[in-house]
Amino acid sequence: MTTSDVSPAAVGGGTCPVSHRAASFNPFVEPYLSDPYSFLAGVRAEEPVFYSPEIDYYVVTKFDDVRMVFRDPRTFSAEIALEPLTPLFPSSIQKVIDVGYVPGPVLVNEDGPIHMKRRKAIGEKFETQRVEALEPRIRAIVTEYLDKFVTTGSADLIDDFVWEIPALVIFMFMGVPDEEAPLVKQFAARRTLFTWGRPTEDEQNKLVDEVGVYWNYCKAHVGRLLEKPGDDFMSDVIRVHQEDPELIDETYLYNTMLNFLFAGHETTTGASGNGFRALLENRDAWAQLCADPSLIPNAVEELLRYSSSVIAWRRRAKAATTIGEVDIPEGANVLLVTGSGNHDEAKFEDGEKLDIHRDNAYQHLAFGFGTHMCLGAPLARLEMRIILEELTRRLPHIRLVEGQEFQYSPNTSFRGPAHVLVEWDPEANPVPTDRP
Fold first, then answer.
1. What is the CATH number of the domain that holds 150?
2. pLDDT tens per residue, range 160-206
3. How many domains does the chain have?
4. Whose CA is closest to 311, among 381, 415, 410?
């Protein structure tokens, strides 16, 4: 890089050279929204760690560097993970106070010994057996939604299929009655813009109002479970609170409820949508799954690597440090582009290629790494496997509607198509009872 290639940008009271490539990084607009991977391949090769003046973050793109940051919670704090990327406007701060919202730590954004103690207590309730026991119910839900459109010859695999299924599954897991689902789904769709997007002041004020409604719903639901716990995961977390209210207080319960409902819905919907698009654009891979369902579990891992719904996460430097060959000041914000790490050819051979037979696909960063690795990973894997098993069995001949444009929410971290339009000949459905 020559002197003419850079321009100064204020960082933590100092200056940082900003290349033209770094200066062009804008995750909120095209062409990055439609295809972040082309841009990321370029920076991995030329400038794998760079400062972005657009978002005031150091952006980390290589697999080993991303994993190193995840593995070092002493140097890199998770406290920033759920902070709104766009700072709250004064009017929004007042609204937060008015609606009574009390944002607090949850597993994803807390550090130190208290994090590990809470993670152990809560993680024990997210046991594998509990998740595996949900398989018959999840398969029944998937079947129910497929039944609604299998004879029609066309569908939107988001609106008609995977928008609802992960929501119903996480509601069941958290003890939410089905009839209350619309409120929760509406909030989940908006949370992405509030936390990881660039809303205007008016948009942010509306989002805070919605957060307030959802916060009060979470408080009411937790209140019901406090009075009468059930056999769901959230009720078990409440039992931990009742045994040790200093470890998990009521505010922690409310924030856990709010964040688990969002994460369990948005991430699996996005991952499924990305997976549908990737497979149907790679017909050989789709055909192999239809012919041999035993390939599906590894295909799920490859889809999570190739087109994860979470493509970036955040940390803050607790002390001056170095990532790669770049000095990071104390207090600097760091964007870990896990989606780029998952395409890093130093880790994954032909990383830009979808390969459902890839033997190290499971080593992806889609669920993070280290002490903050996603607790819900087994549930997401189970849902994606069942969805693909049933879709390939009943509609192996579906194809993408030609000419459709895939749209993505303008934010740094969550990526999934708003719609995936497909069509097929229902007369050719392989299951006789699925034909018109």
1. 1.10.630.10
2. 999 989 988 988 889 988 777 766 666 766 788 999 999 999 999 99
3. 1
4. 415
